[in-house]
Specification:
The complex is a heterodimer.
Chain A lengths: L5 H19 L16 H11 L1 H4 L19 H10 L11 H15 L4
Chain B lengths: L4 H10 L6 H26 L11 H29 L6 H24 L8 H18 L2 H8 L4
Helix pairs in contact in B: 2-3, 2-5, 2-6, 4-5
The chains are: A mainly alpha, B mainly alpha.
Chain lengths: ~120, ~160
C-alpha cells in the first residue's frame, strides 16, 4: 500500500473513533430528581433567551419588567412551580413540558449565588 | 468521581469565566476560527501568495505554528463537551450538519499533521488538507457560534 494513504487511513480511524465516542456519550449526566426531572440547563438557556429574556433580561440579569433571576438563589422545582402558575404580569404556563424542565434547570444554574 | 459528575464539574469550571456552557463553547469556537484565519493567511504567505504581508521567513512560520497550536487548544474543551456529553444528535438540519462536521474535524486535523511531516507527498496535498480543515472549522462555527450569537444571545 502506498505511503500516501497513511494520513487518510489514520484520519479515517480518528473520525470513526470520534463517532463511537459521540454515540457512547460517556459523560452525559443522568436525569436529576425532583419537579424539574430531566431538565437540561444547556437547552434551557435557549428557551430562556427566547421566552423569558424580554422581561428578565439576557442571562437573567434583569432590566425588564420581571425580577433579576441571576444569583437569586432559586431552585428548579420552585422555578417550575412559578412558571406553571404564573406570577404578577407573567401568565401561567408560558413554557410547558420538557421546555419547562429545561428552563427551570437553566434558571436554577444561573440563580446559584456561588456562580 | 461518578462519570455523570464530569458534566457538572465541566459546567462549574467554564462558568467561572462565561455565563453558561454554550456561551463558553461559542466564544472558544470563535477564537479557534479566528486563529484558523491566521493559519490560512500565513500558509498562503508561506506559499508565496498575499505579498502585501511581511516577508516569508521564520516569523511567518512561527505565527503559523503557534496559531495552529492555540486553535487546537481552543477546540479541546468544545470537543470534549460536544462529543462526550452531548453526543451525536440529529434533531434538525443545523445540529445534524454540526454533528457531521464535528465528527470529521479531528480526523482531518490528524491527516493534515501527518501530511505536513511527509515531504514525499504531492505539493497539492498540504494546501488541500489545510483548506479542508479550515472549511470544516468554519462549518462548525457557522452551525453553532453564529447561530448562538444571532438567535440566542450575543454575550459572554
Amino acid at each position: 500500500m502506498p505511503r500516501a494513504w497513511l494520513p487518510v487511513l489514520v484520519g479515517a480511524a480518528v473520525v470513526v473513533s470520534t463517532f463511537v465516542l459521540a454515540q457512547l456519550q460517556v459523560f452525559a449526566p443522568s436525569a436529576p430528581a425532583g419537579a424539574a426531572a430531566g431538565g437540561d440547563s444547556y437547552r434551557g438557556e435557549i428557551v430562556f433567551e427566547r421566552e423569558c429574556a424580554r422581561c428578565h433580561g439576557s442571562g437573567g440579569e434583569g432590566g425588564g419588567v420581571g425580577p433579576r433571576l441571576a444569583d437569586a438563589g432559586l431552585d428548579a422545582s420552585r422555578v417550575a412551580a412559578v412558571v406553571e402558575q404564573g406570577r404578577g404580569v407573567m401568565p401561567p404556563g408560558i413554557v410547558t413540558g420538557q421546555e419547562l424542565a429545561d428552563v427551570a434547570a437553566y434558571i436554577a444554574s444561573i440563580s446559584s449565588p456561588s456562580q | 468521581m461518578p462519570l455523570a459528575d464530569v458534566s457538572e464539574t465541566y459546567t462549574d469550571l467554564v462558568t467561572l469565566v462565561f455565563s453558561s456552557t454554550i456561551a463558553a463553547k461559542a466564544w472558544l469556537a470563535t477564537a479557534a476560527v479566528a486563529l484558523a484565519i491566521v493559519q490560512v493567511t500565513t500558509a498562503a504567505r508561506i506559499y508565496g501568495r498575499l505579498r502585501f504581508l511581511p516577508e516569508r521567513g521564520a516569523a511567518i512560520a512561527r505565527a503559523h505554528r503557534w496559531s495552529g497550536r492555540l486553535a487546537l487548544l481552543c477546540t479541546l474543551p468544545v470537543f470534549f463537551h460536544c462529543v462526550t456529553i452531548l453526543g451525536w444528535q440529529t434533531p434538525n438540519a443545523r445540529v445534524a450538519l454540526h454533528s457531521l462536521a464535528g465528527t470529521f474535524v479531528y480526523g482531518v486535523f490528524v491527516a493534515k499533521v501527518l501530511i505536513v511531516r511527509d515531504r514525499a507527498l504531492p505539493a497539492w496535498a498540504l494546501p488541500t488538507a489545510g483548506l479542508t480543515l479550515a472549511s470544516t472549522l468554519l462549518v462548525l462555527w457557522l452551525s453553532s457560534s453564529l447561530w448562538y450569537f444571532t438567535t440566542v444571545r450575543f454575550g459572554f
